[in-house]
Design a protein that fits this description.
The complex is a heterodimer of chains A (111) and B (268).
Chain A lengths: L1 H20 L7 H20 L5 H23 L8 H13 L1 H12 L1
Helix pairs in contact in A: 1-2, 1-3, 2-3
Chain B lengths: L1 H19 L15 E10 L2 E16 L4 E11 L1 H4 L5 E9 L5 E10 L2 E10 L4 E8 L5 E6 L4 E2 L1 H8 L12 E10 L2 E19 L3 E12 L11 E6 L6 E8 L2 E11 L4
Parallel strand pairs in B: 9-10
Antiparallel strand pairs in B: 1-2, 1-15, 2-3, 3-4, 4-5, 5-6, 6-7, 7-8, 10-11, 11-12, 12-13, 13-14, 14-15
Classes of the chains: A mainly alpha (111), B mainly beta (268).
Chain lengths: 111, 268
Protein backbone atom coordinates (compact mmCIF):
# COMPACT_ATOMS: atom_id res chain seq x y z
CA UNK A 1 0.00 0.00 0.00
CA UNK A 2 2.71 2.48 1.06
CA UNK A 3 4.94 1.41 -1.85
CA UNK A 4 2.04 1.80 -4.32
CA UNK A 5 1.27 5.31 -3.04
CA UNK A 6 4.96 6.23 -3.23
CA UNK A 7 5.29 4.91 -6.81
CA UNK A 8 2.18 6.88 -7.89
CA UNK A 9 3.58 9.97 -6.12
CA UNK A 10 6.95 9.50 -7.80
CA UNK A 11 5.48 8.96 -11.28
CA UNK A 12 3.13 11.95 -11.13
CA UNK A 13 5.87 14.02 -9.47
CA UNK A 14 8.28 13.25 -12.32
CA UNK A 15 5.59 14.34 -14.85
CA UNK A 16 5.22 17.58 -12.85
CA UNK A 17 8.99 18.09 -12.81
CA UNK A 18 9.27 17.59 -16.58
CA UNK A 19 6.35 19.97 -17.23
CA UNK A 20 7.90 22.56 -14.90
CA UNK A 21 10.99 22.70 -17.14
CA UNK A 22 8.84 23.31 -20.26
CA UNK A 23 7.39 26.82 -20.85
CA UNK A 24 3.86 25.83 -19.86
CA UNK A 25 3.35 28.27 -17.01
CA UNK A 26 1.64 26.84 -13.94
CA UNK A 27 0.37 23.67 -15.63
CA UNK A 28 3.14 21.66 -13.89
CA UNK A 29 1.66 22.58 -10.51
CA UNK A 30 -1.30 20.22 -11.11
CA UNK A 31 0.61 16.88 -11.43
CA UNK A 32 3.29 18.02 -8.97
CA UNK A 33 0.66 18.76 -6.29
CA UNK A 34 -1.06 15.41 -6.91
CA UNK A 35 2.37 13.74 -6.64
CA UNK A 36 3.07 15.57 -3.38
CA UNK A 37 -0.32 14.55 -1.98
CA UNK A 38 0.34 10.84 -2.66
CA UNK A 39 3.90 11.15 -1.33
CA UNK A 40 2.75 12.80 1.91
CA UNK A 41 0.13 10.11 2.51
CA UNK A 42 2.82 7.47 1.86
CA UNK A 43 5.18 9.32 4.24
CA UNK A 44 2.53 9.50 6.95
CA UNK A 45 1.85 5.77 6.68
CA UNK A 46 5.56 4.93 6.43
CA UNK A 47 6.28 6.81 9.66
CA UNK A 48 3.89 4.45 11.44
CA UNK A 49 5.74 1.42 10.11
CA UNK A 50 9.43 0.54 10.09
CA UNK A 51 9.81 0.20 6.31
CA UNK A 52 12.51 1.95 4.23
CA UNK A 53 11.51 5.46 3.23
CA UNK A 54 13.92 6.10 0.33
CA UNK A 55 11.21 5.87 -2.36
CA UNK A 56 8.79 8.03 -0.33
CA UNK A 57 11.44 10.72 0.23
CA UNK A 58 12.35 10.68 -3.49
CA UNK A 59 8.68 11.10 -4.51
CA UNK A 60 8.21 13.97 -2.01
CA UNK A 61 11.39 15.81 -3.07
CA UNK A 62 10.67 15.44 -6.81
CA UNK A 63 7.06 16.66 -6.40
CA UNK A 64 8.24 19.62 -4.30
CA UNK A 65 10.92 20.42 -6.90
CA UNK A 66 8.23 20.46 -9.64
CA UNK A 67 6.07 22.87 -7.64
CA UNK A 68 9.10 25.03 -6.75
CA UNK A 69 10.50 25.30 -10.28
CA UNK A 70 7.05 26.04 -11.81
CA UNK A 71 6.34 28.67 -9.13
CA UNK A 72 9.72 30.41 -9.38
CA UNK A 73 9.57 30.41 -13.20
CA UNK A 74 6.06 31.89 -13.15
CA UNK A 75 7.15 34.67 -10.79
CA UNK A 76 10.43 35.51 -12.52
CA UNK A 77 9.81 34.85 -16.23
CA UNK A 78 8.45 37.81 -18.15
CA UNK A 79 6.54 37.48 -21.41
CA UNK A 80 9.15 38.87 -23.74
CA UNK A 81 9.70 38.68 -27.47
CA UNK A 82 13.25 38.08 -28.66
CA UNK A 83 14.78 40.92 -30.63
CA UNK A 84 15.22 39.24 -34.03
CA UNK A 85 17.08 41.56 -36.45
CA UNK A 86 16.56 39.20 -39.43
CA UNK A 87 12.80 39.23 -38.94
CA UNK A 88 12.78 43.01 -38.46
CA UNK A 89 14.72 43.43 -41.70
CA UNK A 90 12.31 41.10 -43.51
CA UNK A 91 9.34 43.15 -42.29
CA UNK A 92 10.96 46.43 -43.39
CA UNK A 93 11.98 45.12 -46.81
CA UNK A 94 8.54 43.72 -47.49
CA UNK A 95 7.18 47.12 -48.63
CA UNK A 96 9.86 47.53 -51.30
CA UNK A 97 9.25 44.00 -52.55
CA UNK A 98 5.62 44.73 -53.43
CA UNK A 99 6.04 48.18 -55.01
CA UNK A 100 5.86 46.91 -58.64
CA UNK A 101 2.93 44.59 -57.91
CA UNK A 102 1.18 47.45 -56.15
CA UNK A 103 1.49 49.72 -59.20
CA UNK A 104 0.15 46.88 -61.40
CA UNK A 105 -2.81 46.35 -59.08
CA UNK A 106 -3.58 50.07 -58.99
CA UNK A 107 -3.33 50.42 -62.78
CA UNK A 108 -5.87 47.63 -63.12
CA UNK A 109 -8.54 49.65 -61.37
CA UNK A 110 -7.75 53.03 -62.82
CA UNK A 111 -7.44 52.36 -66.57
CA UNK B 1 -39.40 10.63 -48.25
CA UNK B 2 -40.76 13.55 -50.29
CA UNK B 3 -40.97 15.74 -47.18
CA UNK B 4 -37.33 14.99 -46.36
CA UNK B 5 -36.32 15.86 -49.91
CA UNK B 6 -38.20 19.17 -49.76
CA UNK B 7 -36.54 20.05 -46.42
CA UNK B 8 -33.09 19.21 -47.82
CA UNK B 9 -33.74 21.34 -50.94
CA UNK B 10 -35.00 24.23 -48.79
CA UNK B 11 -31.95 24.07 -46.50
CA UNK B 12 -29.66 23.98 -49.55
CA UNK B 13 -31.43 26.98 -51.09
CA UNK B 14 -31.25 28.97 -47.86
CA UNK B 15 -27.56 28.13 -47.43
CA UNK B 16 -26.75 28.97 -51.05
CA UNK B 17 -28.65 32.24 -50.75
CA UNK B 18 -26.85 33.06 -47.49
CA UNK B 19 -23.44 32.63 -49.07
CA UNK B 20 -24.30 34.00 -52.49
CA UNK B 21 -25.04 37.50 -51.26
CA UNK B 22 -22.51 40.21 -51.97
CA UNK B 23 -20.46 41.99 -49.32
CA UNK B 24 -21.73 45.59 -49.23
CA UNK B 25 -19.18 48.39 -49.60
CA UNK B 26 -18.28 50.32 -46.48
CA UNK B 27 -16.74 53.68 -45.68
CA UNK B 28 -13.86 53.53 -43.23
CA UNK B 29 -14.64 55.38 -40.00
CA UNK B 30 -12.98 53.13 -37.44
CA UNK B 31 -9.20 53.27 -37.97
CA UNK B 32 -6.48 55.55 -39.24
CA UNK B 33 -2.76 55.83 -39.89
CA UNK B 34 -0.46 55.03 -36.93
CA UNK B 35 -2.99 52.90 -35.10
CA UNK B 36 -1.18 50.19 -33.15
CA UNK B 37 -2.80 47.20 -31.49
CA UNK B 38 -0.95 44.64 -29.40
CA UNK B 39 -2.41 41.23 -28.57
CA UNK B 40 -1.32 38.17 -26.62
CA UNK B 41 -2.27 34.74 -27.97
CA UNK B 42 -2.66 31.95 -25.40
CA UNK B 43 -3.37 28.23 -25.54
CA UNK B 44 -5.71 26.59 -23.05
CA UNK B 45 -4.15 23.35 -21.89
CA UNK B 46 -5.11 21.30 -18.80
CA UNK B 47 -7.30 24.00 -17.33
CA UNK B 48 -4.75 26.80 -17.56
CA UNK B 49 -3.93 29.46 -20.13
CA UNK B 50 -0.36 29.65 -21.38
CA UNK B 51 0.82 32.77 -23.27
CA UNK B 52 2.60 31.76 -26.47
CA UNK B 53 2.66 34.53 -29.05
CA UNK B 54 2.64 38.32 -29.20
CA UNK B 55 0.67 39.76 -32.11
CA UNK B 56 1.09 43.34 -33.31
CA UNK B 57 -1.20 45.03 -35.81
CA UNK B 58 -0.05 48.39 -37.17
CA UNK B 59 -1.57 50.70 -39.76
CA UNK B 60 0.72 52.93 -41.80
CA UNK B 61 0.26 55.09 -44.90
CA UNK B 62 1.99 54.18 -48.16
CA UNK B 63 2.27 56.63 -51.05
CA UNK B 64 2.33 55.21 -54.57
CA UNK B 65 2.54 57.09 -57.88
CA UNK B 66 -1.22 57.39 -58.14
CA UNK B 67 -2.66 57.30 -54.63
CA UNK B 68 -2.12 56.73 -50.94
CA UNK B 69 -2.96 53.42 -49.30
CA UNK B 70 -3.00 51.89 -45.88
CA UNK B 71 -0.53 49.15 -45.15
CA UNK B 72 -1.98 46.93 -42.43
CA UNK B 73 0.86 44.92 -40.99
CA UNK B 74 0.34 42.03 -38.63
CA UNK B 75 3.31 40.28 -37.04
CA UNK B 76 3.28 37.29 -34.72
CA UNK B 77 6.34 36.49 -32.58
CA UNK B 78 6.59 33.63 -30.13
CA UNK B 79 7.72 34.53 -26.60
CA UNK B 80 11.37 33.82 -25.82
CA UNK B 81 10.45 30.98 -23.43
CA UNK B 82 8.89 29.12 -26.39
CA UNK B 83 11.58 29.94 -28.97
CA UNK B 84 13.80 26.97 -28.02
CA UNK B 85 10.93 24.56 -28.64
CA UNK B 86 8.90 26.20 -31.42
CA UNK B 87 9.68 29.65 -32.75
CA UNK B 88 7.09 31.62 -34.66
CA UNK B 89 7.89 34.58 -36.92
CA UNK B 90 4.85 35.37 -39.01
CA UNK B 91 4.19 38.41 -41.14
CA UNK B 92 0.80 39.20 -42.64
CA UNK B 93 0.27 42.34 -44.70
CA UNK B 94 -2.62 43.86 -46.53
CA UNK B 95 -2.37 46.97 -48.69
CA UNK B 96 -5.85 48.45 -48.73
CA UNK B 97 -7.84 51.39 -50.01
CA UNK B 98 -8.05 54.05 -47.31
CA UNK B 99 -11.82 54.50 -47.66
CA UNK B 100 -13.27 51.15 -48.73
CA UNK B 101 -10.62 48.89 -47.07
CA UNK B 102 -10.59 46.78 -50.26
CA UNK B 103 -7.21 45.08 -50.62
CA UNK B 104 -4.79 45.48 -53.53
CA UNK B 105 -2.10 43.14 -52.23
CA UNK B 106 -2.08 40.55 -49.47
CA UNK B 107 1.09 38.86 -48.24
CA UNK B 108 1.50 36.02 -45.79
CA UNK B 109 5.06 35.02 -44.90
CA UNK B 110 5.06 32.48 -42.11
CA UNK B 111 7.91 30.72 -40.35
CA UNK B 112 6.59 28.36 -37.69
CA UNK B 113 9.07 25.95 -36.16
CA UNK B 114 11.02 25.80 -39.43
CA UNK B 115 7.95 25.40 -41.66
CA UNK B 116 7.85 28.31 -44.08
CA UNK B 117 5.19 29.46 -46.48
CA UNK B 118 5.02 32.62 -48.55
CA UNK B 119 1.76 33.68 -50.15
CA UNK B 120 1.24 36.78 -52.27
CA UNK B 121 -2.13 37.78 -53.69
CA UNK B 122 -2.26 40.65 -56.19
CA UNK B 123 -5.84 41.85 -56.70
CA UNK B 124 -6.61 43.07 -60.22
CA UNK B 125 -10.11 44.32 -59.67
CA UNK B 126 -10.90 45.59 -63.17
CA UNK B 127 -9.84 42.28 -64.69
CA UNK B 128 -11.66 40.41 -61.92
CA UNK B 129 -8.70 38.20 -61.08
CA UNK B 130 -6.19 37.69 -58.31
CA UNK B 131 -2.70 36.57 -59.23
CA UNK B 132 -1.55 34.26 -56.47
CA UNK B 133 2.02 33.16 -55.86
CA UNK B 134 2.65 30.45 -53.28
CA UNK B 135 5.97 29.10 -52.10
CA UNK B 136 6.24 26.38 -49.46
CA UNK B 137 9.46 25.44 -47.65
CA UNK B 138 12.31 25.22 -50.18
CA UNK B 139 10.01 24.32 -53.10
CA UNK B 140 9.63 26.39 -56.23
CA UNK B 141 6.98 29.10 -56.17
CA UNK B 142 3.73 28.26 -57.98
CA UNK B 143 1.46 30.83 -59.56
CA UNK B 144 -2.25 30.73 -60.10
CA UNK B 145 -4.99 33.09 -61.23
CA UNK B 146 -8.26 33.10 -59.34
CA UNK B 147 -11.42 34.79 -60.55
CA UNK B 148 -12.94 37.15 -58.00
CA UNK B 149 -15.77 39.60 -57.68
CA UNK B 150 -15.26 43.21 -56.67
CA UNK B 151 -16.17 42.47 -53.04
CA UNK B 152 -13.47 39.92 -52.20
CA UNK B 153 -11.15 40.62 -49.29
CA UNK B 154 -8.32 38.83 -47.47
CA UNK B 155 -8.28 37.81 -43.80
CA UNK B 156 -6.58 40.99 -42.58
CA UNK B 157 -8.66 43.47 -44.58
CA UNK B 158 -11.77 41.44 -43.66
CA UNK B 159 -11.08 42.10 -39.98
CA UNK B 160 -10.73 45.83 -40.66
CA UNK B 161 -13.84 45.72 -42.87
CA UNK B 162 -15.69 44.18 -39.93
CA UNK B 163 -14.59 47.08 -37.74
CA UNK B 164 -16.51 49.37 -40.08
CA UNK B 165 -19.79 47.49 -39.95
CA UNK B 166 -22.14 49.48 -37.74
CA UNK B 167 -23.32 46.91 -35.19
CA UNK B 168 -25.25 49.51 -33.23
CA UNK B 169 -27.89 49.18 -35.95
CA UNK B 170 -27.85 45.37 -36.02
CA UNK B 171 -30.31 43.06 -34.30
CA UNK B 172 -29.27 39.93 -32.43
CA UNK B 173 -29.05 37.11 -34.97
CA UNK B 174 -28.14 39.37 -37.93
CA UNK B 175 -25.35 37.95 -40.09
CA UNK B 176 -22.60 39.90 -41.83
CA UNK B 177 -20.94 38.06 -44.70
CA UNK B 178 -17.48 38.79 -46.08
CA UNK B 179 -15.91 37.04 -49.06
CA UNK B 180 -12.23 36.27 -48.47
CA UNK B 181 -9.49 34.41 -50.29
CA UNK B 182 -8.06 31.51 -48.32
CA UNK B 183 -5.01 29.44 -49.25
CA UNK B 184 -4.32 25.80 -48.59
CA UNK B 185 -1.11 24.09 -49.79
CA UNK B 186 -0.76 25.47 -53.35
CA UNK B 187 -4.40 26.36 -53.81
CA UNK B 188 -6.31 29.60 -53.32
CA UNK B 189 -10.08 29.76 -53.20
CA UNK B 190 -12.82 32.16 -52.26
CA UNK B 191 -14.75 31.39 -49.12
CA UNK B 192 -17.47 33.31 -47.29
CA UNK B 193 -17.00 34.25 -43.67
CA UNK B 194 -20.20 34.69 -41.77
CA UNK B 195 -20.34 36.79 -38.60
CA UNK B 196 -23.46 36.36 -36.53
CA UNK B 197 -24.21 39.19 -34.12
CA UNK B 198 -24.94 37.72 -30.68
CA UNK B 199 -25.54 40.94 -28.74
CA UNK B 200 -23.53 43.03 -26.29
CA UNK B 201 -21.26 41.69 -23.53
CA UNK B 202 -18.91 43.27 -21.00
CA UNK B 203 -15.30 42.09 -21.28
CA UNK B 204 -12.65 42.72 -18.62
CA UNK B 205 -9.21 43.79 -19.79
CA UNK B 206 -5.95 44.02 -17.82
CA UNK B 207 -5.17 47.60 -18.82
CA UNK B 208 -8.40 49.24 -19.89
CA UNK B 209 -10.92 47.94 -17.35
CA UNK B 210 -14.29 46.59 -18.40
CA UNK B 211 -15.38 47.38 -21.93
CA UNK B 212 -18.76 46.93 -23.54
CA UNK B 213 -18.40 44.81 -26.66
CA UNK B 214 -20.30 43.44 -29.63
CA UNK B 215 -20.10 39.65 -29.54
CA UNK B 216 -19.95 37.88 -32.89
CA UNK B 217 -19.86 34.22 -33.81
CA UNK B 218 -17.67 33.42 -36.83
CA UNK B 219 -18.46 30.61 -39.26
CA UNK B 220 -17.77 29.75 -42.87
CA UNK B 221 -19.14 27.84 -45.83
CA UNK B 222 -15.83 25.96 -46.18
CA UNK B 223 -15.68 22.69 -44.28
CA UNK B 224 -11.84 22.71 -44.36
CA UNK B 225 -11.70 25.87 -42.33
CA UNK B 226 -13.22 26.99 -39.06
CA UNK B 227 -16.85 26.18 -39.53
CA UNK B 228 -19.04 25.41 -36.56
CA UNK B 229 -21.08 28.23 -35.07
CA UNK B 230 -20.35 29.33 -31.48
CA UNK B 231 -16.89 27.64 -31.53
CA UNK B 232 -15.25 30.83 -32.74
CA UNK B 233 -16.17 34.16 -31.25
CA UNK B 234 -14.89 37.68 -31.57
CA UNK B 235 -15.66 40.67 -29.36
CA UNK B 236 -15.40 44.20 -30.83
CA UNK B 237 -15.53 47.26 -28.59
CA UNK B 238 -18.97 48.84 -28.76
CA UNK B 239 -17.67 52.26 -29.80
CA UNK B 240 -16.72 53.97 -33.06
CA UNK B 241 -13.32 52.23 -33.15
CA UNK B 242 -14.75 48.69 -32.91
CA UNK B 243 -11.38 47.35 -31.85
CA UNK B 244 -11.14 43.55 -31.59
CA UNK B 245 -10.77 43.04 -27.84
CA UNK B 246 -10.97 39.28 -27.61
CA UNK B 247 -10.97 36.34 -30.02
CA UNK B 248 -11.69 32.80 -28.86
CA UNK B 249 -11.51 29.73 -31.03
CA UNK B 250 -11.58 26.00 -30.38
CA UNK B 251 -8.80 23.90 -31.88
CA UNK B 252 -8.23 20.14 -31.88
CA UNK B 253 -5.94 20.22 -28.82
CA UNK B 254 -7.75 22.78 -26.68
CA UNK B 255 -8.64 26.42 -27.15
CA UNK B 256 -6.88 29.47 -28.49
CA UNK B 257 -7.48 32.95 -27.12
CA UNK B 258 -6.20 36.26 -28.47
CA UNK B 259 -6.67 39.22 -26.14
CA UNK B 260 -5.88 42.89 -26.65
CA UNK B 261 -3.24 44.21 -24.24
CA UNK B 262 -2.33 47.62 -25.69
CA UNK B 263 -3.81 50.07 -28.17
CA UNK B 264 -2.73 53.51 -29.41
CA UNK B 265 -3.40 55.93 -32.24
CA UNK B 266 -7.13 55.20 -32.33
CA UNK B 267 -9.21 57.29 -34.70
CA UNK B 268 -12.14 57.99 -32.36
Amino acid sequence: MIKTLAIIGLTVGIIGLILSILPLGLIAIIPATVGLLFSLIALFLANKSDMKKTLVYAATIISLAGIGIAGVKELTTENKVVDDPDFKKKVEQSVDEVSDDLEDALEDIEE
Amino acid sequence: MNEKLIIIILVQLITLNLFAQTTPDIENYSFQENEKLKFVASFYISGLWSDVVEVNMDVSKIDTKSRSLYRIKCTANSYSKWDTYFDIRDLYESYVDMNTVKPFIFKRNIDEGGYTKNVKLVYKRKSGVVNATIKRRSGDPKSKSVKIKNDTYDFISALYYLRNVDFSEKKVGDVVKIKVLADSKYDVKEIVLGMKYLGKENIKTEKYGTKECYKLSVFTNDSDKISSANANNIWLTADKNQVPLLIKTKISVGSLQVRLTEMSGLKN
